[in-house]
């Protein structure tokens, strides 16, 4: 049961705090390579399921209260905090700072997961890749929409 809950918990959390981009996002300048809107929910659903499965593997191999799981919860909190800052408040530079901190936290989590279960660590690599895309998109939006 714990494995199932951990596997779907990130997805449930993401749906609970998810926001539609809204009219502000539609009007800001974005780079031409911005992924189409439909890509975001598809990619994030896959990533959250992968993250959840990875966390279930680590919790099962170590403990729910281990250092890798603490790192996981920290990165998940940072992940969840980005959405209301970027979409809700339109504070793109602040969101970029959160995103940079999130990337560092996910690198740490990936290393810690890998030490417990290499498959769990490998499952976080696409997440890191997508965060790289998100970083460049967020950075470009900050640059293209000065306050």
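Q: What amino acid sequence fits the structure above?
A:
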């Amino acid at each position: 049961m714990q494995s199932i809950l951990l596997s779907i918990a990130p997805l449930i959390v993401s749906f609970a705090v998810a926001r539609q981009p809204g009219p502000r996002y539609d009007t800001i300048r974005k780079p031409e390579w911005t992924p189409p809107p439909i890509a975001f929910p598809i990619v994030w659903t896959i990533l959250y399921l992968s993250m959840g499965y990875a966390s279930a593997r680590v919790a099962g191999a170590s403990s729910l209260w281990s250092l890798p799981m603490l790192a996981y919860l920290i990165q998940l909190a940072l992940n969840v905090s980005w959405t209301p800052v970027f979409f809700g408040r339109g504070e793109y530079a602040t969101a970029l700072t959160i995103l940079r901190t999130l990337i560092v936290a996910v690198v740490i989590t990936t290393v810690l997961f890998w030490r417990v279960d290499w498959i769990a660590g490998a499952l976080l690599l696409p997440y890191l890749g997508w965060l790289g895309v998100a970083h460049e998109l967020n950075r470009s939006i900050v640059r293209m929409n000065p306050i």
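Q: And what stands out in the fold?
A: The chain is about 80% helix and 0% strand.
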